[in-house]
Design the sequence.
Protein backbone atom coordinates (compact mmCIF):
# COMPACT_ATOMS: atom_id res chain seq x y z
CA UNK A 1 0.00 0.00 0.00
CA UNK A 2 2.84 2.38 0.87
CA UNK A 3 4.50 1.67 -2.47
CA UNK A 4 1.24 2.46 -4.25
CA UNK A 5 0.88 5.79 -2.39
CA UNK A 6 4.48 6.69 -3.21
CA UNK A 7 3.83 5.88 -6.87
CA UNK A 8 0.71 8.11 -6.92
CA UNK A 9 2.61 10.96 -5.24
CA UNK A 10 5.46 10.58 -7.71
CA UNK A 11 3.01 10.61 -10.65
CA UNK A 12 1.37 13.83 -9.41
CA UNK A 13 4.76 15.49 -9.00
CA UNK A 14 5.80 14.38 -12.49
CA UNK A 15 2.63 15.80 -14.09
CA UNK A 16 3.11 19.08 -12.22
CA UNK A 17 6.74 19.28 -13.35
CA UNK A 18 5.75 18.70 -17.00
CA UNK A 19 3.05 21.41 -16.80
CA UNK A 20 5.49 23.84 -15.19
CA UNK A 21 8.14 23.14 -17.84
CA UNK A 22 5.62 23.61 -20.69
CA UNK A 23 4.47 26.89 -19.19
CA UNK A 24 8.04 28.11 -18.82
CA UNK A 25 8.86 27.23 -22.44
CA UNK A 26 5.76 29.09 -23.68
CA UNK A 27 6.59 32.22 -21.70
CA UNK A 28 10.24 32.14 -22.74
CA UNK A 29 9.14 32.23 -26.40
CA UNK A 30 7.37 35.58 -25.94
CA UNK A 31 9.27 38.83 -26.67
CA UNK A 32 11.29 39.89 -23.63
CA UNK A 33 9.57 43.26 -23.56
CA UNK A 34 6.17 41.57 -23.08
CA UNK A 35 6.98 39.56 -19.94
CA UNK A 36 4.59 41.60 -17.79
CA UNK A 37 0.85 41.83 -18.34
CA UNK A 38 -0.26 44.68 -20.59
CA UNK A 39 -2.42 46.49 -18.05
CA UNK A 40 -0.84 49.94 -18.23
CA UNK A 41 -2.93 52.99 -19.02
CA UNK A 42 -2.63 54.33 -22.55
CA UNK A 43 -0.70 57.50 -23.31
CA UNK A 44 -0.52 59.75 -26.37
CA UNK A 45 2.53 59.20 -28.57
CA UNK A 46 1.79 61.92 -31.13
CA UNK A 47 -1.06 64.17 -32.30
CA UNK A 48 -1.81 65.83 -35.63
CA UNK A 49 -4.70 68.08 -36.65
CA UNK A 50 -6.61 65.79 -39.02
CA UNK A 51 -8.07 68.81 -40.85
CA UNK A 52 -4.55 69.70 -42.01
CA UNK A 53 -3.82 66.34 -43.65
CA UNK A 54 -3.98 66.64 -47.44
CA UNK A 55 -2.36 63.42 -48.64
CA UNK A 56 -2.19 59.80 -47.49
CA UNK A 57 -0.10 57.03 -49.00
CA UNK A 58 -0.12 53.49 -47.60
CA UNK A 59 0.98 50.00 -48.58
CA UNK A 60 -1.69 47.41 -49.25
CA UNK A 61 -1.63 43.63 -49.59
CA UNK A 62 1.21 41.13 -49.59
CA UNK A 63 2.86 42.80 -52.59
CA UNK A 64 2.88 46.16 -50.82
CA UNK A 65 0.92 48.04 -53.50
CA UNK A 66 0.92 51.77 -52.83
CA UNK A 67 -2.48 53.37 -52.50
CA UNK A 68 -2.56 57.18 -52.64
CA UNK A 69 -5.28 59.56 -51.54
CA UNK A 70 -5.18 63.30 -52.28
CA UNK A 71 -7.42 66.13 -51.17
CA UNK A 72 -8.48 68.52 -53.92
CA UNK A 73 -11.13 71.22 -53.51
CA UNK A 74 -12.36 69.59 -50.28
CA UNK A 75 -12.86 66.26 -52.06
CA UNK A 76 -10.71 63.14 -51.69
CA UNK A 77 -9.71 61.18 -54.78
CA UNK A 78 -7.09 58.59 -55.66
CA UNK A 79 -4.53 59.19 -58.42
CA UNK A 80 -4.29 55.38 -58.70
CA UNK A 81 -7.61 55.56 -60.56
CA UNK A 82 -9.45 58.86 -60.79
CA UNK A 83 -12.66 56.98 -61.73
CA UNK A 84 -12.81 55.45 -58.25
CA UNK A 85 -15.59 57.20 -56.28
CA UNK A 86 -13.72 57.48 -52.97
CA UNK A 87 -15.82 56.92 -49.88
CA UNK A 88 -15.47 60.06 -47.72
CA UNK A 89 -16.50 58.13 -44.58
CA UNK A 90 -13.66 55.66 -45.11
CA UNK A 91 -11.13 58.50 -45.44
CA UNK A 92 -12.61 60.22 -42.40
CA UNK A 93 -11.95 57.07 -40.35
CA UNK A 94 -8.36 57.03 -41.64
CA UNK A 95 -7.83 60.64 -40.64
CA UNK A 96 -9.15 59.99 -37.14
CA UNK A 97 -6.86 56.98 -36.73
CA UNK A 98 -3.79 58.88 -37.94
CA UNK A 99 -4.44 62.10 -36.03
CA UNK A 100 -3.80 60.71 -32.56
CA UNK A 101 -1.65 57.70 -31.75
CA UNK A 102 -2.05 56.15 -28.32
CA UNK A 103 0.02 53.36 -26.83
CA UNK A 104 0.08 51.15 -23.76
CA UNK A 105 3.80 50.38 -23.88
CA UNK A 106 6.97 52.16 -24.94
CA UNK A 107 9.99 50.06 -25.89
CA UNK A 108 13.24 51.97 -25.65
CA UNK A 109 15.59 52.10 -28.63
CA UNK A 110 18.16 49.88 -26.87
CA UNK A 111 15.56 47.08 -26.53
CA UNK A 112 14.25 47.27 -30.08
CA UNK A 113 14.71 44.17 -32.24
CA UNK A 114 13.64 45.30 -35.73
CA UNK A 115 13.52 41.79 -37.11
CA UNK A 116 11.58 40.32 -34.18
CA UNK A 117 9.13 43.23 -34.20
CA UNK A 118 8.59 42.97 -37.97
CA UNK A 119 9.92 46.45 -38.71
CA UNK A 120 12.35 45.27 -41.40
CA UNK A 121 9.43 43.80 -43.35
CA UNK A 122 6.49 45.93 -42.16
CA UNK A 123 2.90 44.78 -42.36
CA UNK A 124 1.94 48.34 -43.35
CA UNK A 125 3.65 51.68 -43.97
CA UNK A 126 1.56 54.85 -43.91
CA UNK A 127 2.84 58.28 -44.92
CA UNK A 128 0.79 61.46 -44.74
CA UNK A 129 1.45 65.06 -45.67
CA UNK A 130 -0.02 68.19 -44.08
CA UNK A 131 -0.88 71.58 -45.60
CA UNK A 132 2.47 73.04 -44.60
CA UNK A 133 4.31 70.32 -46.54
CA UNK A 134 5.44 68.32 -43.51
CA UNK A 135 5.57 64.57 -43.98
CA UNK A 136 5.17 61.87 -41.33
CA UNK A 137 5.65 58.12 -41.76
CA UNK A 138 4.10 55.47 -39.53
CA UNK A 139 5.44 51.91 -39.70
CA UNK A 140 3.51 48.94 -38.36
CA UNK A 141 5.43 45.73 -37.67
CA UNK A 142 3.94 42.38 -36.74
CA UNK A 143 0.87 41.87 -34.61
CA UNK A 144 1.70 40.73 -31.08
CA UNK A 145 -1.07 38.17 -30.69
CA UNK A 146 -0.58 37.97 -26.90
CA UNK A 147 -1.97 41.51 -26.48
CA UNK A 148 -3.53 42.00 -29.96
CA UNK A 149 -1.41 45.08 -30.67
CA UNK A 150 1.01 46.08 -33.42
CA UNK A 151 4.61 47.20 -32.98
CA UNK A 152 4.65 50.80 -34.15
CA UNK A 153 7.41 53.23 -35.05
CA UNK A 154 7.23 56.73 -36.50
CA UNK A 155 9.70 58.88 -38.36
CA UNK A 156 11.89 60.95 -36.04
CA UNK A 157 11.54 58.51 -33.13
CA UNK A 158 13.65 55.36 -32.80
CA UNK A 159 11.57 53.99 -29.94
CA UNK A 160 8.86 51.43 -30.60
CA UNK A 161 5.33 51.47 -29.22
CA UNK A 162 2.48 49.00 -28.92
CA UNK A 163 -0.70 50.32 -30.56
CA UNK A 164 -4.13 48.79 -31.12
CA UNK A 165 -5.38 47.51 -34.47
CA UNK A 166 -7.40 50.64 -35.37
CA UNK A 167 -4.73 52.22 -37.57
CA UNK A 168 -4.05 49.02 -39.50
CA UNK A 169 -7.76 48.30 -40.05
CA UNK A 170 -8.61 51.86 -41.10
CA UNK A 171 -5.93 51.77 -43.83
CA UNK A 172 -6.56 48.23 -45.03
CA UNK A 173 -8.37 48.93 -48.32
CA UNK A 174 -7.59 48.29 -51.96
CA UNK A 175 -9.17 50.55 -54.60
CA UNK A 176 -12.42 48.59 -54.66
CA UNK A 177 -12.64 48.77 -50.88
CA UNK A 178 -12.14 52.55 -51.06
CA UNK A 179 -15.07 52.99 -53.44
CA UNK A 180 -18.22 54.59 -52.15
CA UNK A 181 -21.13 52.18 -51.74
CA UNK A 182 -24.18 53.55 -53.52
CA UNK A 183 -27.40 53.97 -51.61
CA UNK A 184 -30.86 53.39 -53.02
CA UNK A 185 -33.38 56.25 -53.07
CA UNK A 186 -34.95 56.89 -49.69
CA UNK A 187 -38.50 55.55 -49.93
CA UNK A 188 -41.03 55.51 -47.09
CA UNK A 189 -43.98 53.13 -46.69
CA UNK A 190 -46.43 55.65 -48.12
CA UNK A 191 -44.11 56.76 -50.94
CA UNK A 192 -44.29 53.43 -52.72
CA UNK A 193 -47.25 52.92 -55.06
CA UNK A 194 -46.20 50.15 -57.43
CA UNK A 195 -43.42 47.60 -58.00
CA UNK A 196 -42.83 44.56 -60.20
CA UNK A 197 -40.72 41.43 -59.82
CA UNK A 198 -39.44 39.50 -62.83
CA UNK A 199 -38.02 36.01 -62.48
CA UNK A 200 -37.34 34.12 -65.68
CA UNK A 201 -40.58 34.14 -67.69
CA UNK A 202 -42.68 35.07 -64.65
CA UNK A 203 -43.69 38.61 -63.68
CA UNK A 204 -45.55 39.69 -60.54
CA UNK A 205 -47.26 43.08 -60.28
CA UNK A 206 -47.86 44.82 -56.96
CA UNK A 207 -50.00 47.92 -56.71
CA UNK A 208 -51.39 50.03 -53.88
CA UNK A 209 -55.15 50.19 -54.55
CA UNK A 210 -55.51 53.14 -52.15
CA UNK A 211 -52.73 55.03 -54.01
CA UNK A 212 -51.63 56.66 -50.76
CA UNK A 213 -48.42 57.89 -52.38
CA UNK A 214 -50.34 60.33 -54.60
CA UNK A 215 -52.64 61.58 -51.82
CA UNK A 216 -50.08 63.20 -49.55
CA UNK A 217 -51.79 66.57 -49.91
CA UNK A 218 -55.10 65.14 -48.71
CA UNK A 219 -56.35 65.98 -45.23
CA UNK A 220 -56.18 62.29 -44.41
CA UNK A 221 -53.75 59.95 -46.15
CA UNK A 222 -55.34 56.50 -46.63
CA UNK A 223 -53.72 53.27 -45.53
CA UNK A 224 -52.06 51.26 -48.28
CA UNK A 225 -54.04 48.33 -49.67
CA UNK A 226 -51.74 46.13 -51.74
CA UNK A 227 -52.84 44.03 -54.68
CA UNK A 228 -50.79 41.19 -56.22
CA UNK A 229 -51.30 39.85 -59.74
CA UNK A 230 -49.68 38.23 -62.75
CA UNK A 231 -50.83 41.13 -64.91
CA UNK A 232 -51.37 44.81 -64.21
CA UNK A 233 -55.15 44.34 -64.04
CA UNK A 234 -55.82 41.00 -62.27
CA UNK A 235 -54.42 41.94 -58.86
CA UNK A 236 -55.98 40.42 -55.74
CA UNK A 237 -55.86 41.80 -52.20
CA UNK A 238 -52.84 40.66 -50.17
CA UNK A 239 -52.81 39.81 -46.48
CA UNK A 240 -51.56 42.79 -44.53
CA UNK A 241 -48.62 40.92 -42.93
CA UNK A 242 -47.44 39.50 -46.26
CA UNK A 243 -47.71 42.88 -47.97
CA UNK A 244 -45.84 44.68 -45.17
CA UNK A 245 -43.03 42.13 -45.20
CA UNK A 246 -42.59 42.53 -48.96
CA UNK A 247 -42.78 46.34 -48.85
CA UNK A 248 -40.15 46.48 -46.10
CA UNK A 249 -37.84 44.33 -48.23
CA UNK A 250 -38.26 46.73 -51.17
CA UNK A 251 -37.68 49.95 -49.25
CA UNK A 252 -34.93 48.36 -47.13
CA UNK A 253 -32.58 47.39 -49.98
CA UNK A 254 -28.97 47.91 -48.90
CA UNK A 255 -25.70 47.24 -50.69
CA UNK A 256 -22.91 45.81 -48.54
CA UNK A 257 -19.64 45.84 -50.49
CA UNK A 258 -18.44 47.12 -53.85
CA UNK A 259 -17.27 44.40 -56.23
CA UNK A 260 -16.29 46.75 -59.04
CA UNK A 261 -16.95 50.45 -59.61
CA UNK A 262 -16.66 50.22 -63.41
CA UNK A 263 -18.35 47.06 -64.59
CA UNK A 264 -17.52 45.40 -67.90
CA UNK A 265 -19.39 42.85 -70.01
CA UNK A 266 -17.08 40.21 -68.53
CA UNK A 267 -18.11 41.28 -65.01
CA UNK A 268 -21.78 41.09 -65.93
CA UNK A 269 -21.32 37.52 -67.10
CA UNK A 270 -19.10 36.54 -64.17
CA UNK A 271 -21.59 37.71 -61.55
CA UNK A 272 -24.69 36.36 -63.28
CA UNK A 273 -26.05 39.76 -64.25
CA UNK A 274 -26.05 39.18 -67.99
CA UNK A 275 -29.22 37.16 -67.48
CA UNK A 276 -30.47 38.31 -64.06
CA UNK A 277 -32.09 35.80 -61.72
CA UNK A 278 -34.42 38.55 -60.50
CA UNK A 279 -35.32 42.09 -61.60
CA UNK A 280 -37.08 44.61 -59.39
CA UNK A 281 -38.70 47.80 -60.70
CA UNK A 282 -39.84 50.28 -58.06
CA UNK A 283 -42.21 53.20 -58.60
CA UNK A 284 -42.57 55.78 -55.86
CA UNK A 285 -43.33 59.45 -55.29
CA UNK A 286 -41.09 62.21 -54.07
CA UNK A 287 -42.48 65.34 -52.44
CA UNK A 288 -40.94 68.70 -53.26
CA UNK A 289 -41.04 71.85 -51.14
CA UNK A 290 -44.39 73.54 -50.63
CA UNK A 291 -45.44 76.24 -53.09
CA UNK A 292 -46.85 79.68 -52.23
CA UNK A 293 -50.24 78.15 -51.48
CA UNK A 294 -48.67 75.75 -49.00
CA UNK A 295 -49.15 72.69 -51.16
CA UNK A 296 -46.25 70.38 -51.97
CA UNK A 297 -45.66 68.98 -55.43
CA UNK A 298 -45.67 65.23 -55.86
CA UNK A 299 -43.27 63.83 -58.44
CA UNK A 300 -43.25 60.28 -59.84
CA UNK A 301 -39.86 58.51 -59.59
CA UNK A 302 -38.54 55.01 -60.23
CA UNK A 303 -35.46 52.81 -60.08
CA UNK A 304 -34.57 49.32 -61.24
CA UNK A 305 -32.34 46.70 -59.61
CA UNK A 306 -30.89 43.55 -61.18
CA UNK A 307 -29.92 40.52 -59.08
CA UNK A 308 -27.34 37.97 -60.19
CA UNK A 309 -25.55 35.00 -58.66
CA UNK A 310 -24.77 34.37 -55.01
CA UNK A 311 -21.32 34.88 -53.53
CA UNK A 312 -20.07 31.37 -52.71
CA UNK A 313 -18.60 32.37 -49.33
CA UNK A 314 -21.04 34.93 -47.90
CA UNK A 315 -24.19 33.79 -49.70
CA UNK A 316 -24.91 37.43 -50.59
CA UNK A 317 -26.28 38.33 -54.00
CA UNK A 318 -24.47 40.34 -56.68
CA UNK A 319 -26.55 43.32 -57.74
CA UNK A 320 -26.44 46.54 -59.71
CA UNK A 321 -28.84 49.41 -60.18
CA UNK A 322 -29.89 50.48 -63.65
CA UNK A 323 -27.69 53.37 -64.80
CA UNK A 324 -24.88 52.58 -62.35
CA UNK A 325 -21.32 51.62 -63.29
CA UNK A 326 -20.86 49.57 -60.12
CA UNK A 327 -21.67 46.04 -58.97
CA UNK A 328 -22.25 45.32 -55.29
CA UNK A 329 -23.17 42.51 -52.94
CA UNK A 330 -26.48 42.69 -51.08
CA UNK A 331 -27.60 41.09 -47.83
CA UNK A 332 -29.48 37.82 -48.15
CA UNK A 333 -32.68 38.43 -46.18
CA UNK A 334 -34.28 41.14 -48.35
CA UNK A 335 -33.52 39.30 -51.60
CA UNK A 336 -34.87 36.00 -50.24
CA UNK A 337 -38.05 37.81 -49.18
CA UNK A 338 -38.50 39.13 -52.73
CA UNK A 339 -37.85 35.71 -54.25
CA UNK A 340 -40.34 34.23 -51.80
CA UNK A 341 -43.12 36.22 -53.49
CA UNK A 342 -43.16 33.73 -56.39
Sequence:
Amino acid sequence: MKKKRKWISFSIMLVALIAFTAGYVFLSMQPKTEEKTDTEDSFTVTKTNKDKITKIVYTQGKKGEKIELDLKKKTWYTPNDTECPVNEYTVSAMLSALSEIKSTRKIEKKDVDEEEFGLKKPSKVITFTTKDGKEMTYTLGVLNTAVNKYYFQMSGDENVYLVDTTMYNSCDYDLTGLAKVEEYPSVGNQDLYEFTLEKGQKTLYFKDKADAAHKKNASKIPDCKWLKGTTQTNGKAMKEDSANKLVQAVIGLTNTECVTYKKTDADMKKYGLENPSLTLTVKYTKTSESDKKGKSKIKNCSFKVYFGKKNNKSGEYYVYMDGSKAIYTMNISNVDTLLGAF
